[in-house]
Each structure stands twice: as structure tokens, then as C-alpha cells.
Design brief:
The structure holds 2 protein chains of 2 kinds. By secondary structure, chain A is an alpha+beta fold. Chain A has 5 helices and 4 strands, in the order H-H-E-E-E-H-H-H-E. The chains are: A alpha+beta, B alpha/beta.
């Protein structure tokens, strides 16, 4: 149970219980629907962008505590960031969990660091990255499904 | 609650080496048997002995090892025949699993006879493996897939079944025991109704085979399929039982060695049953392991095992029902082997990860039965499924682990 406390920290449980920016944005600039076919997690990410800056970002969907809290924390981290900074943060977060891709040293994870405990549970990493992949797709104005496969 | 005196659970558990494992320092409580069962020493040894003593290709060589391997392979088929009470040994076809068995029937039985306007009848509680092969064959032929609905309790709407069964129906394919709900379906009633209008029935027995004594002749099933790894055997081996008359009329599923009598460039004569459907070098060790698994189950007795598992199911059901905020998905009168459940406050994946920390292995997800999840408006469920080696004490561990999970999310 001790290891699990590392994964399910208070802040994660709190974001799961009271997810921030859990709402739909009407007529969003960017939108994507993401699913994890392995476990059935589903998430919608909405984006409003003005002059290259993320003015608003929100999500809806059904997922586990890791998925929901990661999405909630993502919205807080992204608001006010430029598109380029948001992409860099995504890369940094993704690298911290999967050790794939390049790690941009100068992008600190800040509060997102609490989610890196999921590294010890390889099958759950996709839960933590689903919202980010969906955001990435929304940002790229991609249509249709995003999966973390 | 104690384990029945006649049922020597200790001796059985000793036969399964993996049950001695610890997970995060806690004794393993393996309750993911509906996904795959563990293996007793006689099964492991049968495979080991084959490779160490007897192995060669089957039905080919004149040398000693080929003869020994062939004998072991053929013996296993005789064991399967006895286990499911098939009329003849050659009605038992070895496949890679229940999935391949269903695909074989879809392509070799259904595809040649289906035309536009024909219907295949399945149910809302099928595993994806008893949905997708029919969707494929419907696409190929223009036939239509019809789905019998299920009730809130997780039982087939039998009135609907009888109403949907018609002269358009060319095949009924139904699961014997639902892997997501645990429901035991009235397959005998289904088969009798279908036969009254000359419609054949395939029964998906993947979940039934370890829990319910099956007599394909008493059922009068036209096809019955199952996988070895759900009944203490190896993965990659399964069975298609089919009535001789139907199998003989079907074209081969795959071409290759072993399924032919003679080959020339002018034409090929197919081999007789069962070899017509077993192209290529088969899964010899899988077959031998499955034979050993059936021997092991027979030694203890499937009826005895079923009684033990039904006791566990009843105990677990009352135990889990008493947990606040827990909802059981699937409350059919007739259930076997498993309980699906959800918690108000905790997603099934979180349940799965957290109780793994207590050594408890359950499945969390959609169980390859997404239509069932949709029917009950849940994204996924957690599922505890039982085998001959599970104990009442393990159910207590499961219940405590679930309570801890709920507390953690408070």
C-alpha cells in the first residue's frame, strides 16, 4: 500500500474528485476526442487560442483517477502558455513518463511532477498521457480519433 | 466459512506452483481466471516431458519419436471427445482457440450458404470474438446480424429471442456463460427452438468449459467451441466441436499440409475429418497440455469443482453486496464463476492497481465485451473470477482490499 500512496497522492485524488476545467467549450478553436481502446477511457479536449496563446482549455470524459487528474492538471498547466511552450511541456511530460523522445531540459514540470510516480506502473502510463495526446491532436487541429496506441 | 471437508483444497493448491508466489510481499490471490487459468504441475510436466522425451512432428515420420508424438496428440483428442461427450473422435477439431473456432465456422460454414436477406442471430452479451467474425461474414455476403437484447439483471430476453428467430435465420451463435456478467444462458432451450425450424446453433463455451459439465449430444449443439487456457491448459490451443454431417459438408478453412490426401497441380483431394481442418503442423505441445489438463480436471471431477466454485460465488456475492457503494453488474439467477462490479467513487482501473498492491489479481476493463458495458452504462468493470483452487479466505482478502480502496478515495 505504501508504493500506492506514491501513485495516488492527495493532490491526484483531489483532482480526480474535483476535476478543474471539466466542461465543454462551445465553438472551440481546437477539439479532439481521445480513447484508450485497451481500457475504454474516453476524453474530449477543447481549446481556445488567441494570438498563439492558449486562452482556455477544458476537458470532458470518463476515465480512471490517473487519467482524470492528469487531464485536470494539464488544463491548469497549459492556460496562458504559447503553443510552442505547450508543445515543449507536452514533450517534457511525455518524456518524464515514458523516457521516449527528446527531453527539453529547460522545461520544468512543476506541479505535474506528482504524476511521474506512474512510471512504476507501466500499464497505467497511457492513462496519464491520454489527455496530453488528445490535447496535442486538438492543437494540431487533427480530426477524428486519437489513441495512445 | 470453511472449505468443504471432502474437497482437498490444500492438495489442489499444492499442484499449482504459481500459487506460492508473493506479490508486493503478499500471498498471491489469483482471481483473474476468466482471463486465463493457472497450470497444475501435471500440465506443466506433460509439456516438459513431451519436449524432453517424445517430441517430433506428428502424422509424418515412420521413426519412433514421430510415432510417440502422434500417439500423444491423438490420445488428447480422445480425451476431449470424452470430456464433451462428442459422438466421434473426428468431430473434435484442434484450433488455436475459441476465437479461431468461431472464425472457422463463420468462413467455412456460414459464408458459403449466406446470401442477402439472411440473418445470423447472436446476443447482446457476446464477447467480441462472437461478434466480429459474424460482422465480417455479413459484410462478405450481405447477410444481417441480429442481436437478442438482455435484461437489467443480465439475462437474455428469451421472448425476444423466440420472436427474432425466423426462417431468415441461418445460424444462432450464443455464449454459454457470459465472460462479463457470469450469466449462464439457457442454451438447451435456444438449441431446441432453433432446431424446430432447422437452424443450427454454435455455442461459445469458452467460459463454461471450466465450470459446467458439457454434453454436446445432450445439448444437441451443432458447434461447440472453447479454449484450452481457460481450463488449466496452455494458450494457443482450442477446440471446435462440430457435428460430423456439418463438418463433412464444409470446405476447408485453410490449405496446407496434413489437410490433404493427395496433391497435384490438376487438383487436390482433401483429407477426412478432423485433419481437413487442421492444416499445417499443429500445436503439438498445446494439444498434449490440454489433454493433461482434462485428465487433471477429471481426476478431481468437474461436478465437484463446480460445487466448490458455486459456493465461492455465493459467498463472494453476499460479501461484496455488503460493501457500501459497490454495485454488482450482472445479477442473473443462473451464474457461474465470476462477479463483475463497479464502485461509485473509484474507477475499475484504479481498483485493479490498488488491490494488486494487496496481492489480489482481478481484471479491470471492458472484458472484450464493449456492448455489455454500454448496455449497463459503465465504462468498464472490475471482475473477480474463480477457479478450483480459490478459497473462501481469498474472498475475504478481496473484500478487505476493496474496502481499503474505497477508504483511500474518501
Amino acid at each position: 500500500m505504501e508504493n500506492l500512496r506514491e501513485l495516488y497522492q492527495e493532490v491526484i485524488l483531489d483532482h480526480n474528485k474535483n476535476p478543474r476545467n471539466f466542461r465543454k467549450i462551445e465553438n472551440p478553436d481546437g477539439f479532439a476526442h481521445g480513447t484508450n481502446p485497451l481500457c475504454g477511457d474516453q476524453i474530449d479536449v477543447y481549446l481556445m487560442i488567441k494570438d498563439g496563446i492558449i486562452e482556455d482549455v477544458s476537458f470532458e470524459g470518463a476515465g480512471c483517477a490517473i487519467c482524470t487528474s492528469s487531464a485536470s492538471m494539464m488544463t491548469l498547466a497549459l492556460k496562458g502558455k504559447t503553443e510552442a511552450d505547450a508543445e515543449a511541456l507536452f514533450n517534457s511530460f511525455h518524456h518524464a513518463l515514458t523516457e521516449e523522445g527528446e527531453y527539453p531540459e529547460d522545461v520544468p514540470l512543476g506541479k505535474l511532477k506528482v504524476l511521474t510516480g506512474v512510471k512504476d506502473y507501466p500499464v497505467r502510463v497511457k492513462c496519464a498521457t491520454l489527455a496530453w495526446h488528445t490535447f496535442d491532436a486538438a492543437l494540431k487541429r487533427l480530426q477524428g480519433e486519437v489513441t495512445t496506441e | 466459512m470453511t472449505n468443504s471437508a471432502q474437497y482437498n483444497i490444500k492438495a489442489i493448491r499444492n499442484d499449482f506452483p504459481i500459487l506460492g508466489r508473493e506479490i508486493f510481499g503478499k500471498p498471491l490471490v489469483y482471481l483473474d481466471n476468466a482471463a486465463s487459468t493457472q497450470h497444475p504441475t501435471p500440465v506443466i510436466n506433460a509439456v516438459k516431458d513431451l519436449y524432453e522425451q517424445n517430441y517430433s512432428n506428428v502424422h509424418r515420420g515412420v521413426h519412433t519419436l514421430s510415432q510417440e508424438s502422434s500417439n500423444l496428440y491423438d490420445d488428447a483428442r480422445v480425451k476431449v471427445r470424452g470430456f464433451i461427450h462428442a459422438a466421434c473422435v473426428h468431430e473434435v477439431i484442434f484450433t488455436s482457440g475459441a476465437t479461431e473456432s468461431i472464425n472457422l465456422v463463420a468462413q467455412s460454414y456460414a459464408r458459403p450458404i449466406l446470401k442477402e436477406g439472411d440473418e445470423i442471430l447472436i446476443t447482446h452479451m457476446e464477447h467480441h470474438s462472437n461478434i466480429v467474425p459474424w460482422q465480417i461474414v455479413c459484410e462478405q455476403t450481405g447477410a444481417t446480424l441480429k442481436v437478442v437484447p438482455i435484461s437489467d439483471r443480465g439475462e437474455l430476453e428469451m421472448d425476444q429471442f423466440h420472436a427474432m428467430l425466423s426462417e431468415k435465420t441461418k445460424l444462432v451463435s450464443v455464449v454459454h456463460v457470459s465472460n462479463a456478467l457470469g450469466t449462464v444462458n439457457p442454451v438447451k432451450e435456444i438449441i431446441d427452438a432453433a432446431h424446430a425450424i432447422d437452424v443450427p446453433v454454435l455455442v461459445d463455451g469458452a467460459q463454461a468449459i471450466p465450470h459446467i459439465p458439457v454434453d454436446v449430444q445432450a445439448l444437441d449443439a451443432d458447434f461447440y467451441v472453447f479454449s484450452g487456457h481457460k481450463i488449466y491448459g496452455p494458450t494457443g490451443i482450442g477446440v471446435l466441436y462440430g457435428k460430423e454431417k456439418l463438418l463433412n459438408a464444409m470446405p476447408p478453412y485453410q490449405g496446407g499440409g496434413d489437410m490433404i490426401l493427395s496433391v497435384s497441380f490438376e487438383g487436390t483431394t482433401y483429407n477426412q475429418l478432423p485433419y481437413k481442418f487442421e492444416a499445417g503442423t499443429p500445436n503439438i505441445a498445446g494439444v498434449v497440455g490440454l489433454g493433461a489438463a482434462i485428465d487433471y480436471v477429471n481426476k478431481i471431477g468437474l461436478a465437484t469443482i463446480a460445487a466448490h466454485e458455486n459456493g465461492l460465488l455465493a459467498y463472494a456475492t453476499s460479501k461484496l453486496r455488503s460493501i457500501d457503494g459497490l454495485r454488482i453488474i450482472g445479477e442473473a439467477d443462473q451464474k457461474a464463476g465470476l462477479i463483475s462490479f463497479v464502485l461509485d467513487a473509484v474507477h475499475p482501473h484504479d481498483i485493479g492497481t490498488i488491490i494488486d498492491g494487496e496481492g489480489v489479481a482481478v481484471r479491470a476493463g471492458h472484458h472484450c465485451a464493449q456492448p455489455v458495458m454500454e448496455r449497463y452504462k459503465v465504462p468498464a468493470t472490475a471482475r473477480a473470477s474463480f477457479a478450483m483452487y480459490n478459497t473462501y479466505q481469498e474472498i475475504d482478502v478481496l473484500a478487505e482490499a476493496i474496502k481499503k480502496t474505497i477508504d483511500m478515495f474518501k
